[in-house]
Design goal:
Largest sheet: 5 strands, parallel
Strand order of the largest sheet: 2-5-1-6-7
Shape: globular
Helix content: 40-55%
Order of helices and strands: HEHEHHHEEEEHHE
Number of strands: 7
Number of helices: 7
Length: about 190
């Protein structure tokens, strides 16, 4: 599916689900699947009416030597701070208040500057693990992007985020998530990767 077709499919679903209140949309999929591209396309389609919360901002600072010892399941459980995402972003936005949180800086492995997100008509939570079970009740729509592993790996290698061993550990945690938690089976829309 092309990015344009994916945006059209997502917007068609959002138009069906839009009601009186704010619409919370999780866009999930493994690293390099096209989640940011889809979120940006939706944002453009609904110009000025979309807030985007990036899951990448909610990782925990964990020393490389420690995280290198995690099993795939432990990495899934320990790297992503879903409670902070819930408490600092999702709950305030659902209560019609701005979200305020510190962004995780991938290059320094520390929490960095503060981010402020205004509640808008559509709130997109974009990133791996965005539709995990603990967050589902706070979402109105779940979208999953299913992109072949080889293409995702190619995209991940093109990013300046770490060594080959880091990418392998990262993808092992995602594989565990896709196989054990299976967010794709709980999605309202599954998009073939682009």
């Amino acid at each position: 599916m092309s990015p344009e077709a994916a945006v059209r499919a997502a917007c068609a679903l959002l138009n069906q689900r839009r009601g009186r209140g704010r619409l919370f949309v999780g866009i999930d999929g493994a690293g390099g699947a096209g989640k940011s591209t889809l979120a940006d396309g939706i944002c453009e389609a609904y110009w000025g009416r979309v807030s985007i919360v990036k899951c990448d901002d909610f990782y925990r600072p964990i020393a490389e030597h420690e995280s290198g010892t995690f099993s795939p399941q432990e990495a899934y459980e320990k790297h992503f701070d879903w409670k902070r995402l819930r408490d600092e972003a999702l709950i305030p936005l659902r209560e019609d208040s701005p979200a305020r949180y510190q962004r995780y800086d991938w290059s320094t492995d520390c929490l960095a500057e503060w981010i402020d997100i205004e509640p808008r008509e559509i709130v997109i939570i974009e990133g791996v693990y965005s539709t995990r079970p603990e967050l589902r009740e706070l979402l109105d729509v779940a979208i999953f992007i299913d992109t072949p592993r080889d293409e995702r790996l190619r995209r991940m290698r093109a990013r300046p985020q770490g060594s080959t061993s880091w990418i392998e550990r990262w993808m092992a945690a995602e594989d565990w998530y896709l196989e054990s938690v299976a967010p794709q089976h709980h999605a309202d829309l599954v998009i073939a990767g682009f």
